[in-house]
Amino acid sequence: MFKGLPFAHQVTIGIAGAVLAMAAFIFFQWVSTPSYSVLYSGLDDQSLATVVEELERLGVPYQLEGGGSQVMVPRSQVYQARADLASAGVRSGSGPVGYELLDGQGLNVSDFRQRVDYQRALEGELAKTLLAMKDISQATVHLVIPEETLFLEDEEPVTASVLIATAAPLGELQVETITFLVASSVEGLESQDVTVADVDGNVLHAAGQIAATGAVSNRNLRMTNDYETALAMDVRRLLDTVVEPGTASVVVHAELNFNEESTETESYDPDSAVALREQTISESYSGSGTPPGGTLGVDGEEVVPTVEGEGYSYSRNESISEFGIDRVVTRSVVAPGQVQQLSVAVVMDDGSLTGLPVPPVAEIESLITAAVGLDVARGDTVSVSAVAFPPAEEIVEEAAAAAAPMDIMSMIPQLIGGLVLLIVAIALMLMSRGGKKAKKSKDGDVPTPAALPAGAAAERQLVSVGAGAAGDSLHPEVMNLVQKQPEEIAVLLRSWLADRR
Fold first, then answer.
1. pTM for the predicted model, two decimal places
2. Distances (CA, A) of 277 to 297, 320, 324, 430
C-alpha cells in the first residue's frame, strides 16, 4: 500500500514518522529524567557551600540554579533532604533569625550583650512576621531602643525602620498595616516613629506621620460605604415587603464626622450645702495689771479694752464652719463616625411593570424615616419617586450581553481546534484523491509496471499512449507511467534528447 501511494504522499508520511519518532524520544527522555524541585532559595555563599557539602555527603543529587542562589533536588527527596539537613544542624540561611538567637546564651553574658541579642531577636521576629504577608518577598527591620533614663522627660522615643521588597506594589492600606503591626510589637514604639521604605528607594511611610493621609481617607471611605450599604439593604428589605421584589432602587448618602472629641464638665449645686466641720473659739480676760493690747480679732480691727473700776476685762468669741456642696465631674468622648447628615433616595415602580397597586409615596417616606432613623432637625432628607420602570431585567441583560465586546482571548482554544480539524480534513482529501488516481490508472488501458516493455517497446508504449490519448486523459496517464517506471522513462528521454542533438 505504501508503494502504491504517490511520491509526495510517501515523503509526507516519512516526515511525519520522523517527527513522531523524535517526539517519542523526547517524551521518554523527559519521563525517565527525575523532576527537580527547590530545596532552598536565596542562599548566600557560605550557606550554599554548607548545604552542597552536606548533600554530597548524603549522596543526594542536586542542581544549582538561579545564579547559584537556589539548590534543586529530586522532587521525591525534597522533604527527606530537608529533614536530614536539619538533623545535621545545617541551616538554609534564607530566613531571619528570631528568638532562637537567645537559646545559646550562658550565665556569663554581659548586660550589653543581652540587650543587643534581644534587639536582634526582636528585629528577626518582626521580619519573619512581615514575610508572612502576601506580596512581601524580603523584609529587614532595624530598631533603635534607647537606654532608660532616670527622668521620663529625658527619655528618647523608640524608632524603627522597615525595608521591604515586594512582588507587587503595596497599597496604602497594606502600608498602614505594616506600620501598626511593627508599632504594636515593640514596647514604647508609636506608629508615627516608624519609617517604611522599599528596595527601590521609595518612602512608603515617613516618621512623623500618624498615618498616611491616603490610608486614613480610604479607611474613612470604607466605613462610610459600609454604613451606607447597610442602611440601603435595610430599606430594600423593607420595600420588598410592601412592593414587588426587585422593583425599587435605593441610594443612601451619609456624611460622617471622623473627628474624635473629648469633653469634661464640672458642676456644683449651691442648694446642697452640708456642714462638714465647725470650730468655736471663746476668750475672756479680767483683773489688774497691764491691759491687753495689739491687734485682735480675725478682721484685723484693734480691740480697745473696757475699763471697769480699777481692773480690766476682755472677751472674744469666734466661730468657723466649713460646708460641702454637690460636685459632679462628667467626661465624655465622642468616637469617630458620628452621623452628621443622612439622605435617602428611592425610585420605585408605579405599578406599570407588575400591574399591582403601589402604596402612597407619603406612607413609603414615613416607613423609611422610621427605618433609618432620620432626624429632620439635623438636616436629613428622604425622597421617594414612583415612575414607570423599563422592560424586564431579562431583556436588559440580553441586550447588554449582545452589546458587550467579544473576548478574543477566550476564543483562542476554539480557533486552534478548528484549524487542526481543517488541516486533518485537507490531508484526508488529498490522500483520497491520490488513491482514486492510482486506482483509475490501474484499471485503465495502461499496462502494469511488470508488463511494460523496456527499451524500444517502452518507446512504442509511450508513443501509443500519446497518440491514442486525447483531451484531459493525456496528462494523468503520462504522469502515471513516470511514477510507475521512472528509470525506463528516464532512459527513453535521454535517448530522445540524444537524437535531437
1. 0.41
2. 21, 8, 9, 125
Q: For 461, list phi and psi in degrees, rounded to 5.
A: -65, -45
60/237 Cα distance (integer angstroms): 66
Q: Tell me which residue of 45, 42, 135 sits closest to 94, measured CA to CA.
A: 42
Q: Which amino acid belongs to residue 58?
A: L
- As a whole number of angstroms, the distance between CA 83 and CA 62 comes to 16
Please give the C-alpha separations between residue 88 and each of 43, 53, 91, 92, 394, in angstroms, as whole numbers.
18, 12, 9, 12, 68
Q: pLDDT per residue over 161-201, tens digit each? A: 999 988 888 888 888 889 999 999 998 888 888 999 998 88
Q: Measure the CA–CA gap between 9 and 436, rounded to whole angstroms.
A: 13
Please report the DSSP string for 138-178 in residue order: EEEEEEE-PPP-SSGGGPPPEEEEEEEEESSPPPHHHHHHH
| Residue pointed to by grid coordinates 400591574 | 355
What's the pLDDT tens digit per position in 14-35?
A: 888 888 888 888 888 777 777 7
Which residues are CB-contacts of 327 (< 8 A; sequence separation ≥ 6)? Answer: 266, 267, 268
Can you spell out the DSSP letters for 393-425?
HHHHHHHHHHHSPP-TGGGHHHHHHHHHHHHHH
